[in-house]
Design brief:
Layout: H1 2-68, H2 76-83, E1 88-94, E2 99-102, H3 115-123, E3 126-131, E4 138-147, E5 152-161, H4 163-213, H5 228-277, H6 283-315, E6 323-326, H7 327-337, H8 339-344, E7 348-351, E8 358-361, H9 363-380, E9 386-394, E10 397-403, H10 411-414, H11 434-444, E11 448-453, E12 459-466
Parallel strand pairs: 7-9
Antiparallel strand pairs: 1-2, 1-5, 3-4, 4-5, 6-8, 9-10, 10-12, 11-12
Helix pairs in contact: 1-4, 4-5, 5-6, 7-9, 9-11
Main location: membrane
Protein name: histidine kinase
Keywords: ATP-binding, Cell membrane, Kinase, Membrane, Nucleotide-binding, Phosphoprotein, Transferase, Transmembrane, Transmembrane helix, Two-component regulatory system
């Protein structure tokens, strides 16, 4: 099934169980309260009605018999006729609990033994619900004492069947059960749909993440959502695009490094073989070959230094060692270092500030940044153009910038110009580390590297750092 399948089943099942369980408990609680209310309404209402009738009948009978000095046995017929109610049997019992008369006309030989009779003699009234010992019918019995002048002379007892009430109650229970079952079925269907819709983006994200982990960098989440999942899917797609772009730049970087290493090594190897097999007495040829070998060796050293810097940045071991130094002196040394390259293209350099600046920074790293910025300006300037160099101090910050008169940079390239491995031109020299390393150097000085350009009107690159980092 795989991780995605397990996640799908796990999340869906948990959501389904939680939702259905919560709603089921709510329904059961509601039905319990409803059933309790219905039971109370039907059964307690019947008990109260029968009990009130029994009490009223007893009170009226007591007054009547005391007023006329009638005996219980003499008034059996009158009591039954006057106080009987439809659908209920009326019984008259003497003080010993013997059954004297019944509205049904049936008087068993055995003395009736029911809890309501005993309770009525003891507490003044008694109620009993149970099954009739002979018929098995579910009945309700209420007994109330009949009193003489000074003592209890008997009981008046009312018995009614609960079968009809039971049938009605069972019908209501069945209806409620069916309604609850239908509600649960609807809840289950809605919860299943809800769980499926909720887990769908999670499953899609999981599957896409697994593909991405396997190197399928073209993977994208195509589902459209209207909540936080849309933000998540958009972020995932952005991440995948960046990974693809980084992978592409990494491959280009490896290719560039291979090319950059091969070119000087080929020159070194070629001239080494020429010198070994050539005429050692030819001083001019020997000097030319050794000069090329020296230049290519320096080029290799520079490339290796860039790679080492990149490695240090990657593992977090790159550090700076700030000291106070003359920025003007360092800048002039860099200009002199690149003077030959400048002259080859007929580039003029215009210094637009004579302000003397002492910086507290890592001189070697700042020199590295200056070389990179000035070298780029010379490299991408049009022949016989001018490179302008400016710097100023304001609000405890130092700003340096170099402006060339080259062709400028396309907007789509400008935003990535200081990204690792990025090169504006596929066939340009270098491996795409220069500006990225400069950016990190300036950031270690708590400053900011900037590059501004409009296509066709040159480029301005520079940095701003605190005077004391």
């Amino acid at each position: 099934m795989g991780i995605a399948g397990m996640t799908k089943m796990g999340i869906k099942r948990r959501l389904l169980i939680q939702n259905v369980s919560l709603i089921t408990l709510t329904i059961l609680l509601f039905l319990g309260i409803l059933v309790s209310g219905i039971y109370s309404y039907y059964y307690n209402g019947t008990i109260d009605m029968l009990k009130n009738h029994a009490v009223n009948s007893s009170q009226f009978a007591n007054k009547y018999m005391n007023l006329h000095s009638f005996t219980l046995r003499n008034e059996l017929t009158n009591l039954q006729n006057n106080f009987s109610i439809p659908q209920a049997e009326t019984q008259i019992l003497n003080a010993s609990g013997d059954l004297l008369s019944s509205s049904t006309g049936f008087i068993p030989d055995e003395k009736p033994d029911f809890k309501d009779i005993e309770e009525a003699f003891r507490n003044g009234s008694g109620t009993w619900i149970g099954n009739h010992p002979i018929t098995g019918e579910h009945i309700l019995a209420v007994s109330v004492p009949l009193k003489g002048e000074n003592n209890t002379i008997g009981l008046i007892r009312f018995i009614t069947s609960l079968e009809s009430l039971d049938n009605n109650f069972r019908t209501i229970l069945l209806s409620l059960f069916l309604i609850g079952l239908v509600i649960l079925l609807i809840v289950f269907m809605v919860s299943t749909l809800f769980a499926r819709n909720l887990t769908k983006p999670v499953i899609e994200l999981t599957e896409a993440s697994q593909k991405l982990a396997k190197g399928e960098l073209e993977t994208r989440i195509v589902g459209q959502y209207k909540d936080e999942f849309q933000t998540l899917s958009t972020s995932f797609n952005d991440m995948a695009r960046e990974l693809l772009k980084t992978e592409k730049m990494k491959n280009e970087f490896i290719s560039s490094v291979s090319h950059e290493l091969r070119t000087p090594l080929t020159s070194i190897k070629g001239w080494s073989e020429t010198l070994l097999t050539g005429d050692l007495q030819n001083v001019q040829e020997n000097k030319t070959g050794l000069t090329i070998i020296s230049n290519e060796t320096n080029r290799l050293i520079g490339l290796v230094e860039e790679l080492l810097d990149f490695s240090r940045f990657s593992n977090g071991s790159f550090t700076i060692h700030p000291t106070t130094f003359s920025f003007n002196r360092t800048l002039n040394e860099v200009i002199l270092q690149l003077d030959q390259k400048r002259k080859e293209k007929g580039i003029s350099i215009m210094l637009e500030s004579d302000e003397i600046v002492d910086l507290f920074a890592d001189e070697n790293r700042i020199r590295q940044v200056l070389i990179n910025l000035l070298d780029n300006a010379i490299k991408y300037s049009d022949p016989n153009s001018t490179v302008f160099i400016r710097n100023n101090q304001a609000n405890s910050y130092f700003t340096f910038e170099i402006e060339d008169e080259g062709q400028g940079i396309e907007p789509e390239h400008l935003q990535h110009i200081a990204t690792l491995f990025y090169k504006e031109r596929e066939n340009s020299d270098g491996v795409g580390l220069g500006l990225a390393i400069c950016k990190n150097i300036i950031e270690l000085h708590h400053g900011k590297l900037f590059v501004k350009s409009d296509k066709g009107s040159g480029t301005t690159a520079g940095f701003t750092i605190p005077l004391r980092s």
